[in-house]
């Protein structure tokens, strides 16, 4: 099915999110929509999917103008969407999620779950998904949950599939599997709109690329274009894709972790006897496939784990046994891996989110009352310093793009006097322009003499930032190696093979 968007314009008050956008996706084509966070990509696709109504412009399928009053109309016309944040009910089975909203019934009005199971098996077998229709969604890995979303769309005979930032929550291995799935869908005639800001993925899978900046189409590109050319189109300026840093100047201050063991409620070991040190003035990157203990290690440092043995000493002071508040007050800055759940209160304004770590002090609170003038002045300064694209300090954080939400978290954490900075997946779901900015701020923090821990599943990011790399596998420290260690050696270590300590 051929998709064509002509002159699509969408406004939100004074903000024009989409400005007369034209886009054509041919049948059996993977067309990448590339742009920074906040460029208008997702808004455009929400118009296509019937979630928003365009103020101007037309949607055409096979040259016929369409009118969608909601997602049901779009689905009926053959359009499916795989959202960045999955639209699944965790306590339902795969089959129940697939039939939700399109329930088939048997005699007496009983749900025909057998038909739903059969549909899941048929699509799963056709694409090699290996998805159990009776599995509970909450028990499935993230990559498999995304396959369930794809099965949902295909079960409704989608001829055009929209993938909205589909790799933001995937491991590198799951990303590779998704790329293979997209190629298979293309080979069977499905038209695909692939929304992303990750240049490697664009060049790997796209047939054509359309670049959007500030709500407008600013150009088209071929997958053979260089990363620098694509980044420049996205951001509107030359982007430095290489992290520049001098050799570290190590300080005496730092973090010492000795014999750290973390268990869950049932006694299963999640972090197994981990020991390492991070000096002031260096970046220690923790690498590994997601789910090998990195999250629990980070949470133990922040006091978020209940069952911890061993020692975590910051500048000689023991952190184990302290509350999260006490650890933050000791000068620990923390960027969590999921900003939506742990980093922000989305309903709060940008100003309110910027004071979350310091709501007990006198800087912004006096006699139990928030000093709004001082807070808003601080927020405006940080909005400018961190280039947060917003309508102002009073805007709800949840209304910002993902990259700008991440900048709010960074602005809050890096605006305090720090004794340790911990950043988990600092650029997950963030565009190339923001990645450049975030990486520079991390190196600036390191150069100021602060010990820095970066936890990342992106090997390119690990290699760019790390002075030393700690690799974890099944909760254990496999080895600690120099930051310039080759990718193939790191890959072997991530599979559990020993490396030499540095």
Automatic annotation (TrEMBL):
Domain ABC transporter: 3-239, 255-499
GO MF entry, a single one: ATP binding
Gene3D superfamilies, alphabetized: P-loop containing nucleotide triphosphate hydrolases
Domain of life of the organism encoding this protein: Bacteria
Pfam families listed in its UniProt record: ABC_tran
InterPro entries referenced in this protein's UniProt entry, alphabetically: AAA+_ATPase (IPR003593), ABC_carbohydrate_import_ATPase (IPR050107), ABC_transporter-like_ATP-bd (IPR003439), ABC_transporter-like_CS (IPR017871), P-loop_NTPase (IPR027417)
UniProt entry keywords in alphabetical sequence: ATP-binding, Nucleotide-binding
Official protein name in the record: ABC transporter ATP-binding protein
């Amino acid at each position: 099915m051929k998709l064509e968007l002509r002159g699509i314009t969408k406004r939100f008050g004074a903000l024009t999110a989409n400005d007369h956008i034209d886009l054509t996706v041919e049948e059996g084509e993977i067309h990448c929509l590339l742009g920074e966070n906040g460029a208008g990509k997702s808004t455009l696709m929400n118009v296509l999917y019937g979630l928003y109504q365009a103020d101007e412009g037309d949607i055409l399928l096979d040259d016929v103008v369409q009118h969608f009053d909601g997602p049901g109309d779009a689905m009926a016309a053959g359009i499916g969407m795989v959202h960045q944040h999955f639209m699944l009910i965790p306590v339902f089975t795969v089959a129940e999620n697939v039939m939700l909203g399109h329930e088939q019934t048997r005699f007496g009005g009983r749900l025909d779950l057998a038909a739903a199971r059969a549909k899941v098996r048929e699509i799963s077998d056709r694409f090699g998904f290996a998805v159990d229709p009776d599995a509970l969604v909450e028990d499935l890995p993230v990559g498999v949950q995304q396959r369930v979303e794809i099965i949902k769309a295909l079960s409704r005979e989608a001829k055009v599939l929209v993938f909205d930032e589909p790799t933001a929550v995937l491991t590198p291995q799951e990303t590779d599997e998704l790329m293979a799935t997209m190629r298979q869908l293309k080979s069977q005639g499905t038209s695909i709109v692939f929304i992303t800001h990750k240049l490697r993925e664009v060049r790997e899978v796209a047939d054509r690329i359309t670049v959007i900046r500030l709500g407008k189409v600013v150009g088209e590109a071929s997958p053979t274009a260089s990363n620098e050319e694509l980044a420049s189109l996205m951001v509107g300026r030359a982007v430095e894709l290489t992290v520049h840093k001098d050799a570290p100047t190590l300080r005496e201050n730092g973090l010492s972790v000795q014999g750290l063991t973390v268990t869950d409620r049932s006694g299963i070991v999640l972090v197994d006897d981990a020991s390492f040190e991070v000096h002031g003035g260096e970046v220690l990157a923790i690498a590994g496939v997601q789910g090998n203990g990195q999250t629990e290690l980070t949470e133990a440092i922040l006091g978020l784990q209940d069952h911890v043995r061993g020692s975590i000493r910051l500048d000689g002071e023991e952190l184990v046994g302290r509350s999260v508040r006490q650890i933050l007050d000791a000068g620990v800055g923390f960027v969590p891996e999921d900003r939506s759940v742990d980093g922000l209160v989305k309903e709060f304004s940008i100003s309110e989110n910027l004071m979350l770590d310091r709501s007990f002090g006198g800087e912004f609170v006096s006699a139990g009352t928030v000093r709004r003038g001082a807070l808003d002045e601080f927020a405006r300064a940080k909005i400018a310093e961190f280039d947060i694209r917003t309508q102002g300090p009073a805007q709800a954080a949840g209304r910002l793009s993902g990259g700008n939400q991440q900048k709010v978290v960074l602005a809050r954490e890096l605006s305090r006097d720090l004794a340790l900075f911990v950043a988990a997946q600092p650029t997950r779901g963030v565009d190339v322009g923001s990645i450049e900015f975030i990486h520079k701020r991390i190196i600036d923090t390191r150069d100021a003499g602060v010990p820095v821990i970066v936890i990342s599943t992106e090997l390119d990011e690990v290699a760019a930032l790390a002075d030393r790399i700690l690799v974890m596998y099944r909760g254990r420290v496999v080895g600690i190696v120099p930051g310039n260690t080759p990718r193939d050696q790191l890959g072997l270590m991530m599979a559990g093979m020993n490396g030499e300590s540095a």
